[in-house]
Amino acid sequence: MAEIIVMPKLGYTQDEGTISEWLKKEGDTISNGEPFFDVQTDKSIITVEASCSGTVLKIALEPGVTVPVLTPVAVVGQPGEDAEAALAGHVTQTAADKHEDSLFEDEEEAPAETPAAAEAPAEELKLTPRAKTYVKENNIDPASLTQIQGTGFEGGITSRDIKASPLARKVAEKLGVDLAAAPGSGIGGKVMKADVEKAAANAFAGTDELQVLSSTPYKGVRKIIGDKLSQSKFTMPHLYFTDSVDTTEMTKFRKALNEVADRKITVSDIIVYACAKALQKFPGINSAMVGDEIVQYRSVNVGVAVAGDNGLVVPVIKNCQIKTLTAVSEENRDLVDRAKMGRLSPAEYANPTFSISNLGMFGIENFTAIINPPCSAILSISSVIKKPVVIEVDGEDTIAIRPMMNIQLSVDHRLIDGLLAAQFTGYVKELLENPMKILL
Fold it and tell me: Catalytic one among 90, 99, 238, 413?
């Protein structure tokens, strides 16, 4: 019996997903546990394995289309089975049906049946109800629509696809022009590239109104980040501690390590390891508010904020307290690389006990980070900048140019007092300025 494959729920916060790539095509055989397709969730891309063996009878969702979880996306069964019948018998008005409705929500109500002039293309082309009406009212030859690539559900051709040329749609998207406001000069009022450019020019002429470049729904990873950090800022009384670190010795230390290490140690690796040591010394920082209790953790799980293609994500290096600097470096590089590609599993960004946000590579002299829940503290790292500082040489104060790096600790003042935060910040500074200590 054919089996319906649905959009899986891959995380507690996931309510929708997008197929980023099908790893099998219709007609291919597939075995239980074999990679089937990649799903773009709110934070990462996850490869989904087949839950049964058989032949891929139908792929019901094109890559790039976002649908609610549990929406049917494919049918797997034995050759000769009716995939359409299996889909039809799945569940009446499933999430997939609702999604199809939403794709046509800009289409006005139209009769289910239209005269013969529109029925002919319906048999050969996938036309939405509004598209059929538009074809009939404008006496468009159905043969002229065969080259149109439909943007509707399962490749269906919408009235917008007919009204505008593919090039016009691309230019409209780039210039932020509403195709509905661009009078068409083509056959049957079809919008052409020149029409879009003219509409764009007219939109800016003689008006002081704000012109919108783009409008993106506030949902998915951006909304999750916003909700999470808003909750952090509004529920945690933030307190901040800033210090400057002379990176002269850290640079020498890193150079010496890389002369003998199999893999290059980065500044980020050293900072993560130094923070892990400091968290063991000051476990009050390695804590969280869990319900009505303040919990201090033995596990030192350091999250490193990464800006990936799909927004900010914080992969977590687990149990740093039992790992060597080399092990932390290898894991850090692997997690960061896959985070940038959106290839982390939910477990790899879960359960941080402390976070680091490093913008040093972007030339930022100083910034303040918002605590990443459920952590009670986050350390922001700024760029290394050469500055004149006062140092002591042979008992005398003198001015020297040194590579200085600002660090700032943000803490939840409900859990962490100022003295503890100051001691922790000072110890991190001590370790970074005397990096041999982190190996002891």
Answer: 413
